[in-house]
Structure formats: structure tokens, C-alpha cells
Design a protein that fits this description.
The protein is mostly helical. The protein is 52% helix and 5% strand. A hairpin with a 2-residue loop joins β4 and β5. The chain binds coenzyme A. Coenzyme A binds next to loops.
Amino acid sequence: MTDSLTVRDNRTGSEYDVPITDGTIKAADLGKIRTDDETPGLAVYDPGFVNTASCRSAVTYIDGDKGILEYRGYPIEQLAEGSSFLEVAYLLVHGALPTKAEYDAWVHEITYHTFVHENVKTFMEGFRYDAHPMGMLMASVGALSTFYPEAADIKDADNRHMQIVRMIAKMPTLGAWSFRNAQGKPFVYPDNELSYTANFLSMLFKMSEQRYEPDERLVKALDVLFILHADHEQNCSTNAVRSVGSSQVDPYSAVAAGVGALYGPLHGGANEAVLRSLKRIGSKENIPAFIQGVKDGNERLMGFGHRVYKNYDPRARIIKKAAEDVFDVTGTNPLLDIALELEKIALEDEYFVSRKLYPNVDFYSGLIYEAFQFPPEMFTVLFAIGRTPGWLAQWLELVQDKEQKIARPKQIYTGDRQLTFTPASERWA
Ligand SMILES: CC(C)(COP(=O)(O)OP(=O)(O)OC[C@H]1O[C@@H](n2cnc3c(N)ncnc32)[C@H](O)[C@@H]1OP(=O)(O)O)[C@@H](O)C(=O)NCCC(=O)NCCS
């Protein structure tokens, strides 16, 4: 017996068998349920897609109740501990871990493509001194499509691979230059003798020295943060990449849409809000009053709670450890003590326990970024660099998926119908 759902339409008395596959029914099967040939079939109303699967995907698995996150089947904890960001990028894009030869070739390709056309530098210099780095990143990623018009040929596998390499390679260059613009400092060219993440730090912070040599512990911590952000299945920005990509536009334009989605405070901006709260709390004595305010509904404890995770966000645990490593180098951030105490109190408090509110990825990441001396506007840029391989892996899956179509949701029309138009000359007479 195949799994199915029997639906009885009480408007007509008709019964329908709707097949269930992978815990889902096809929305098109519901469309066959109709009262007569004139009226449209039954549809699903789901703002925010909270219970609608938009694709089949083999990239990332999340079990929010158990606090599990896996990329291509590998637990995030193991990847953060033993892999590197570029290896994880390979895994996400290719679907399997690389051999030594494959890894070396991948790193070589990415390193070789870190430079951008000089015209990119010129137009980035044209932004205002106070331009938000995310706005600059979004514009410059989109602009890459004009430098590589062949990227429009998304049906050619070699061509797709070339653009994926370019994008992963150039994101740190564009991100670092967005930062330098706001600082009024000259742009630093990539140093291809350095690792991916060390080179990024060099482009951010190098001044007059011959070579910028970042502390390896900081490089490792930032690399881990990139790994933690590399994918998170069908979140808002990934959905944006897939939705725009479904028009078969080039991948630069699709990823620029993802950067735009990430720019929004509900997606990429929570870690900045955590920092603001910690600064406002100011010292440990003020925590109980703050917690009471949260329980009274005056505000939220930012960095806690998640739409998917109803358990400790596995990334938060890893970030907490990375924070300790960073503070060994930079000296501790006094806000860390407040964060630790806040977490301890919240995890024992009935309000948070009963609502399954645990620290999420953003609770500690802002503290780390601040220790690196990143201004808050840069936090989301770091997120975007980390998320790029995930966006591209999802885009690749989309363009090769024969079941996919151009994204075009239905609506429930609530406006007027059949009004009679009177020209302005008569209406205003
Ligand atoms: C992430 C978030 C938007 C998820 O929201 P959601 O799944 O829609 O959950 P809800 O808003 O329905 O919250 C469920 C309950 O927990 C409470 N709650 C959720 N997050 C809370 C928080 N951070 N602080 C205090 N209470 C919170 C809600 O008030 C609600 O309580 P109620 O049932 O008494 O009304 C939410 O937890 C939040 O705003 N967190 C803070 C922002 C943040 O850290 N975002 C980064 C996510 S990675």
C-alpha cells in the first residue's frame, strides 16, 4: 500500500486520494480538487513558506529538535574541528570530500582567481565614504556579471564551475575593499602566498608592512566561523538565490540577490543586536533586571531562540570555543563575562526552558567580530563570505534539477474587480 491522503471536499462531496512522498504531498495534486471546471483548484496559503518544501536538496540536513546540522552528511562539529573553509566549500559544491589532488587543484584555482578587474576597483572607489559595506558587496557581486558575460551560459558545466571558483575567490577581495572604503584606506591587493582566510585578513588590515602576517589562531577562528556559516538549507537568502536563479539568470546576479536578503536585520543582523544588548546591560548586576524585562515581554533576549532549532544551536557551542581562542590573542572582551552569565541564568530559567530558547549562532559571533575590531556593519559581510559556497551549491543543484521551474507563487487576490476607468481629464474636471 502506498502512503496517501484521502481528502473529502465537503463543498462537492467528492473524495480524492493524494499520494504522500517523503512526508509531503504535491501542491499540484491539491490543484485537482475543484468545485467545477470554471473555478481554480485548491491551493495552499503559506506566507513565509513555513510549511512548504520548495525543492529536493542533498546539501544540508538540519534536525532542529535534536540540534543537528550536517553538510553533505558530515556533522558540523567534525568539520569545524578538522576541516578548512576551502575544503568545506569543495564538499558543499561537489558533494563529496576531495582527494589530495582535487583539494590542491581547488585551492590553486581559488587562489589564482582572487584578483578582480581594475575597473571593479574604480567603481568601488566611487561609493560614498560612508557607504554600507553590504550595499557595496551586493552591487559589486552583481556587477561581476558584466565582467563575465559568458556566465549567462548556465547550461555548460565547465562554465558553471569557472563562475563558482571566481565567486568564492573574489568575495573576500570585494568584502575587504568595502571595509577599506569606509575606513578611507587604500585597497590592498590579494597576497596569493597566504591562505584564503589569512589573505582576507591581510586585505582588511595591512598597512605599510611588506607582508601582513596574521596570528594563526585568529586565522583558524575566522576560518571556523566561515565553516559555521557556509550553508543552512532553505533560509531567506538561499531561497532568494534559488528564486532569482530559477529565471536562469547568471550566478552573479542570483548571488547578489542572496547578499541583498542577508542584508536585512531579520536575517544577517542579529549578532549586532546582541552586542547592543550586552553593552546596554553593562555589568553582571544588571542581568536579573534585564531578564525580568524580557520575561515581562518588554524586549527579546537577542541571540536566543531559533525558528528551526528548539535545542542548543550546534554552531553556538563551537563559536563559544572559538571565542575563547580569539580572546587568548586579543585579550578578553568584558562583554563576554556578561554573555556567559546571561546564558547561564537564561538556561536555568523556566521562561526560556519551557519555550526551548537556547543560544543561537549569533549569541557569541558578534563578540568575536568585535575582538577582530570589525565595525558592526562588517558582521554581515563576513556572513556573506562564509555563505557563498552554500549559495552556489544550492544554485548548482537548482539549475540541474529537472523538477524545478521558474519560481512563481500564487496569490489570493483581495482587490477590486471590473471597475470602469474614467480618464483624468473627466475625473478632475
Ligand atoms: C529567532 C526567532 C525570530 C524565532 O522566532 P519564532 O520561531 O517565530 O518563535 P516565536 O516568536 O513564535 O517565539 C515563541 C515563544 O518564545 C518567545 N521568544 C522567542 N524568542 C525569544 C527571545 N529571543 N527572547 C525572549 N523570548 C523569546 C516568544 O515571545 C514566544 O513566547 P510566547 O509563546 O509566550 O508568546 C526568535 O527566537 C527571536 O526573535 N530571537 C531573537 C533574535 C535572534 O537571535 N535572531 C537570530 C536567529 S539565528
